[in-house]
């Protein structure tokens, strides 16, 4: 049933229940309890995962702490090598992982495969980026600040935070897990993953790829269970040194409860699409349909409200209606455009927003239709600010259209939202586009295209209730490290000695590098400082072929 593809994943299954991953092993929880994962399409239980206990979480945290210490001392290139290996294994096993995504979260089959491949690429890119940015430090000299002499040096470098807790949401359970795992590991942290319940089995398969790559025991763990049951215990655990969370309002509650640890929060959005009179209406239409309805609107960066100038609204609404009529509605296995939303409670929530809009007089461009968790695409025209759907995130295939009479009205609506993830503006006038995007209070504004997360190395962030901090590979690596300084103060006498002896020290260092005998010809810190400051002073450093005797006898 649950295990597909090559069969390597049989290791992670105990009868009907998937095991959790701790201390380098797949384990059965002592709770004796499991959590059901209901297939959104069949509405039958598809998989089961362990309901981990608090005691098991404690053990995972202890093991992570021990493993992290050794991992932080593992050379950066070796950490990168293991990540590249995991990425390759992940891509090799895209089929069984994608199959889980289809069954657990009703992701269309092709998109499910793309998510896994993109995740492998993300892990590889993270390894490369980590090698680049973590291999560098910074040298500061004191005399740039008023009142200081050039007698103090600061060498700063990045060190890991310790144990990172990663909690991704259901809609990208693999990609949004590796976007936390990769940066945490390359930076020298240990990682504890709490996958979303819907998507947990795909995430466990992904973790198995890291297991097969051969990471040290305890460095990566994956504890399963309902967020509502083990979430608080995890996020308030004293062993956690950093939390990277992606999801909805739960993130706001976590931010209030978490202790003094760095937080990376990527939360909900109500991405506005502002359309001006001079826009290319076919381009607008294509982007509204793709942006609003891909994966049935279950994307943080989906277009969630269209703010369109009255004069072109009729034309665009007609075009969008025509395109929506052509979308394939059905099962994810058939690669339908619109598939069932993730849970029955999500479908009920979406329906409540639709009914509220109906009562308050919105125009239904299609008849509202729902079967189980499957909701047919619906465009609601003439939506007004007193309707819930004007502000709330349906996370489903329902899109409100608000007609506006001025650009200012559109910007005002966008900025009145408590969210500020992304937005977009459509116009042929680049000056207007830049002015509007500048005025929109969101983490990103796309010009003439729908909001989107990625490519994964781009910075990605939300303002207001949409998040704390910034994601994207480089930002995540930096966020999961702390800067430490190595400061060196010199007396005036020492400083003078340094300048006098600079040339000689530079030579000694050059020799050490050549002969590799490890002899300490000079205090290495002194040498580094001298070398980095060498540009300020005349240097007659010997040619690279100079041998030791020549230099010492000089
Ligand atoms: P969610 O309900 O907030 O759940 C997110 C994660 O939090 C899940 O793993 C969930 O586990 C866990 N969780 C639940 N209660 C918890 C608690 N008390 N403590 C710790 N963790 C807890 O969000 P979702 O429904 O999965 O995802 C949809 C939301 O995510 C939307 O609002 C969407 O906009 C947002 N999102 C944002 C981004 C972004 O980058 N900004 C990207 C994608 C999605 P269980 O599944 O076990 O409950």
From TrEMBL:
<keyword id="KW-0963">Cytoplasm</keyword>
<dbReference type="InterPro" id="IPR051020">
    <property type="entry name" value="ALDH-related_metabolic_enz"/>
</dbReference>
<keyword id="KW-0521">NADP</keyword>
<dbReference type="InterPro" id="IPR015590">
    <property type="entry name" value="Aldehyde_DH_dom"/>
</dbReference>
<dbReference type="InterPro" id="IPR016160">
    <property type="entry name" value="Ald_DH_CS_CYS"/>
</dbReference>
<feature type="domain" description="Aldehyde dehydrogenase">
    <location>
        <begin position="28"/>
        <end position="483"/>
    </location>
</feature>
<dbReference type="GO" id="GO:0008886">
    <property type="term" value="F:glyceraldehyde-3-phosphate dehydrogenase (NADP+) (non-phosphorylating) activity"/>
</dbReference>
<comment type="function">
    <text>Important as a means of generating NADPH for biosynthetic reactions.</text>
</comment>
<comment type="similarity">
    <text>Belongs to the aldehyde dehydrogenase family.</text>
</comment>
<dbReference type="Pfam" id="PF00171">
    <property type="entry name" value="Aldedh"/>
</dbReference>
<protein>
    <recommendedName>
        <fullName>NADP-dependent glyceraldehyde-3-phosphate dehydrogenase</fullName>
        <ecNumber>1.2.1.9</ecNumber>
    </recommendedName>
</protein>
<dbReference type="GO" id="GO:0008911">
    <property type="term" value="F:lactaldehyde dehydrogenase (NAD+) activity"/>
</dbReference>
<dbReference type="InterPro" id="IPR029510">
    <property type="entry name" value="Ald_DH_CS_GLU"/>
</dbReference>
<feature type="active site">
    <location>
        <position position="266"/>
    </location>
</feature>
<dbReference type="GO" id="GO:0005737">
    <property type="term" value="C:cytoplasm"/>
</dbReference>
<keyword id="KW-0560">Oxidoreductase</keyword>
């Amino acid at each position: 049933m649950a295990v597909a593809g090559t069969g390597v994943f049989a290791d992670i299954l105990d009868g009907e229940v998937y095991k959790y991953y701790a201390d380098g092993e797949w384990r059965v929880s002592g709770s004796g309890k499991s959590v059901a994962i209901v297939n959104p399409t069949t509405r039958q239980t598809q998989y089961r995962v362990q309901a981990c206990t608090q005691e098991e979480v404690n053990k995972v945290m202890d093991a992570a702490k021990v493993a992290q210490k050794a991992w932080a001392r593992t050379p950066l290139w070796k950490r990168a090598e293991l990540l590249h290996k995991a990425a390759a294994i992940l891509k090799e096993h895209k089929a069984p992982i994608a199959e889980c995504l289809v069954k657990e979260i009703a992701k269309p089959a092709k998109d499910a495969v793309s998510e896994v491949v993109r995740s492998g690429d993300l892990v590889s890119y993270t390894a490369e980026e980590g090698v680049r940015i973590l291999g560098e430090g910074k040298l500061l000299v004191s005399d740039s600040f008023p009142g200081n002499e050039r007698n103090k040096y600061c060498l700063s470098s990045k060190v890991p935070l310790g144990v990172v807790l990663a909690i991704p949401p259901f809609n990208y359970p693999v990609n949004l897990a590796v976007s936390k795992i990769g940066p945490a590991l390359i930076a020298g942290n240990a990682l504890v993953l709490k996958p979303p319940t819907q998507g947990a089995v795909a995430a466990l398969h992904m973790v198995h790829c890291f297991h097969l790559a051969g990471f040290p025991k305890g460095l990566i763990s994956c504890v399963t269970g309902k967020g509502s049951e083990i979430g608080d215990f995890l996020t308030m655990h004293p062993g956690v040194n950093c939390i990277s969370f992606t999801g909805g309002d739960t993130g706001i509650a976590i931010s209030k409860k978490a202790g003094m640890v760095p937080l990376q929060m990527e939360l909900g959005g109500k991405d506005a699409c502002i359309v001006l009179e001079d826009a290319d209406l076919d381009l607008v239409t294509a982007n509204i349909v793709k942006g609003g309805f891909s994966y049935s609107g279950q994307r943080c960066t989906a277009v969630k409200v269209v703010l369109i100038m009255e004069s072109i609204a009729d034309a665009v609404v007609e075009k969008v209606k025509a395109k929506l009529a052509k979308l394939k509605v059905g099962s994810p296995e058939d690669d339908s455009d619109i598939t069932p939303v993730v849970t029955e409670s999500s479908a009920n929530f979406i329906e409540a927003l639709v009914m509220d809009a109906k009562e308050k007089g919105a125009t239904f461009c299609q008849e509202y239709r729902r079967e189980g968790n499957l909701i047919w695409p619906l465009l609601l025209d003439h939506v007004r600010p007193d309707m819930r759907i004007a502000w709330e995130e349906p996370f489903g295939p329902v899109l409100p259209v608000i007609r506006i009479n001025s650009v200012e009205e559109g910007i005002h609506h966008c900025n009145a939202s408590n969210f500020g993830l992304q937005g977009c503006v459509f116009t042929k006038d680049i000056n207007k586009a830049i002015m509007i995007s500048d005025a929109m209070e969101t983490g990103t504004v796309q010009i003439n295209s729908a909001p989107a997360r990625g490519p994964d190395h781009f910075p990605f962030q939300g303002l207001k209730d949409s998040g704390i901090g910034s994601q994207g590979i480089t930002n995540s690596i930096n966020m999961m490290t702390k800067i430490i300084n190595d400061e060196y103060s010199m007396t005036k006498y020492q400083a003078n000695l340094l300048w006098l002896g600079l040339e000689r020290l530079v030579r000694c260092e050059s020799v050490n590098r050549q002969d590799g005998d490890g002899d300490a010809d000079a205090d290495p810190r002194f040498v580094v400082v001298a070398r980095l400051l060498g540009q300020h002073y005349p240097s007659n450093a010997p040619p690279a072929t100079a041998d030791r005797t020549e230099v010492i006898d000089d």
